[in-house]
# Entry
Amino acid sequence: MQASGAAGEASALLASVRNTLVVEKTYPPERDVSGEPPRIGVFVCHCGINIGGFVDVPKVREYAATLPFVVYVADNLYTCSEDTQQKMVEIIKEYRLNRVIVASCSPRTHEPLFQATIREAGLNPYLFEMANIRDQCSWVHMFEREKATEKAKDLVRMAVYKAALIEPLKRMSLPVNSAALVVGGGVAGMSAALSLADQGFDVHLVEKESRLGGVANKIFSTLQERDFQKHLESLIDQVRRHPLIRVNLNSELT
# Structure
């Protein structure tokens, strides 16, 4: 809670310069792969010992080479390393790959990195598939090396057949209404509304009762013997006077 409050205060201080240092990444023209048969590259990662310590990675690599549409396979100690990323770009160009699979860790953390890598090689970022052979395999079966290896093969095979069917996608930009809805006019709700409004956003504060304050209206002192009602009155006054906050009393969401 304290960290969120600190982040809100910092964001308010930086509101006037938001996005002024953003530099848009430039990529080479996207290669048109329509009409091409799938040419899949599979990169199997050791992830140090996270995968390589429990899965026979060379066997997974050899198996991947036997799968349909696969024209290139490799295993790497760390596929996410900068030097391997650069090598992947070169391989995609050299072998004219039009689908890329990385068998490694979680797409939740690394998919954007690999999508950016294949985009550097001129491929649409959605011509990428990831097989999670760490979280879903090596970490689960760390005492069953043979079974873990067979499962890793299964995950790679499924990724290959899926990759053969994926098509390029285009990202869309849609207009966004930069306004916030805060439900509840207690101390937390009012503090959130003020933080957002101080960052330059219109705020709609909804409170079902006839006055702001919530439970805090029944608190008269704190452990520090502070006059809490005086603090509450000041908070309510700030909310009511803020030009970007619209207070809706006796209101509920339907």
Remarks:
- The longest strand covers residues 70-76.
- Residues 145-163 form the longest helix (19 residues).
- The chain has two domains: 40-163, 175-248.
- The two ends are 28 Å apart (CA to CA).
